[in-house]
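Render this sequence as a predicted structure.
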Amino acid sequence: MDYVYYPGCSLETSGKAYDESVRFVFQQLGHNLIEIDDWNCCGATYYMATKETISLVISARNLALAEQIGQDLIAPCSSCYTILYKTNKILQSNPILKAKVDQSLRRDNLEYHLSLRIRHPLEVLVNDIGLNTIREKRVVSLEGRRIAPYYGCQIVRPDRGIDNKEDPQMMDELLRTLGAEVVPFPAKVRCCGGMLMTTYPDVALELNLEILACAARAQAEVIVTTCPLCQINLEAYQNKINKKFNTRFHLPVLYFTQILGLALGGTPRQVGLHRQIIPFHFKAINQEEAR
């Protein structure tokens, strides 16, 4: 099956490893990702805070372009996924705003008919492709790897109907399918602070401290996440957190697709491990050896 692919700005810059690993995973599982031609920024949260109509038009342009391809839209970045999903829902429920957006889209010779489904790759992997298929395709065991699954605060909130918003399990189940040990991790949906790291860094550093401390108490050797901003906050600021709070964190933070890609036989470079600030040392264990 084909899916429309919206990488978003982060996956072309600081989150390049996410892009590489998403593409690799879907290729290994036999599904094509069709990138939207001439996509633009989703609008993030800044536009929403400035003028709602403008933000909806910016986001809806991507939806209109994706709709022309005719398949479900996948957006890996938690923020992009949230904004595109929210735009779609608003346009479905508010005909006045929909009319204003349509007027602007027509200037670009576009129109949006509200037929698109906006989805996160985690949900697609678990619900469409399925854990049984992933188990069959697995060539490397993650047995003995202690992993903390960090969902962040966006992909299951507000209630999107894809998982429990207080204790989501999709990533947990996926990691267990790969043979990993999922550690108890109550901080799995705590906020990392997002862009507070650039505006109120003291607040953001403390929020990240709590998440890292939770993973450390559970003796996790790696945190895996679904969000580029969460990933960079948790990984790139560990030195500052250590200096400020007298801690000694040195915990790799990966995208869930990097871990999945390794289990599907990808090399560290194919899934972007060479881009990590804190290295994740991975020794492949063949499934037959693991048995």
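Summary. The beta strands are 2-5, 32-35, 73-74, 118-119, 140-141, 146-150, 181-182, 222-225, 253-255, 285-286. The chain has a mean pLDDT of 92.
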